[in-house]
Amino acid sequence: MTKNIFYEDLQDAGKFKQLEKRLLGESNLPGPRANLGAASTFADAFGSDWVTGDAWELLVEWSSRAEADAPTDDPREFLPFCALQAMGTYYRYADSSRQQIILERCQAAMNDSRWRMREAAAMALQRIGEQDFGALRSLFDAMMGKASALEKRAFVATLAHPPMLKDAAHVLYALELSEHILDEIAEGKTRYGTEDFRVLSKGLEYALSVFVERAPEAGFRMLAKFAVTEDKRMQKIVKSNLGKARLAKKYSQDVERIQLLMNA
């Protein structure tokens, strides 16, 4: 197996400044799309139990950089973006105290004002979930009762990850969690009209179709439940998912049935 290109630099704390300069140079920032390939390769370098104390402290330091030190669309933002994903990879090999820090950093990033850091949180959690779905489920269940709109968005964005949805039980959990979130919106427990709600709604407008595609019976039953509401917020979410090709092409009859319910 080819050795990770970041491995040597991560073995020697004396090379961390050089490593930082390299990542900043490869960030593709400012720009619309960060260098996801470089971030993924860096994160992959933490996929073993070799991680030194210095390398762990590097992740802790980088992941804690706030917007003032790593502004949106600035090359410096790429460092916490990479570090959080690396923490997700390392979770499996970390001791319990480090695992707790990793989950705390992910939760903080879910609420970050920087959209790219919110994406990093979901990507890190996906790495955790691929290795240990139980840990992911325990985290989300513990948070759900008091979860913010941005945290709920992180839940569905994380779960809408095909490699984690090969297990039918994982898909059903994603649908159950999504239905709970939708119920709270319908009951007025989620503040409407805020930017945070807009972000949550955007997430729900695509993620549900990913889950429904893999469990159509339960999934379309859930969409039908919210299709009959007069709540325009809910109608927008349902309509958007019905329009996704993964449902419209594969389950055209079910989609038409739900559309008829909405127009009744």
Automatic annotation (TrEMBL):
InterPro entries the record matches: ARM-type_fold
Official protein name in the record: HEAT repeat domain-containing protein
Annotated source species: Paenibacillus borealis
Lineage: Bacteria, Bacillati, Bacillota, Bacilli, Bacillales
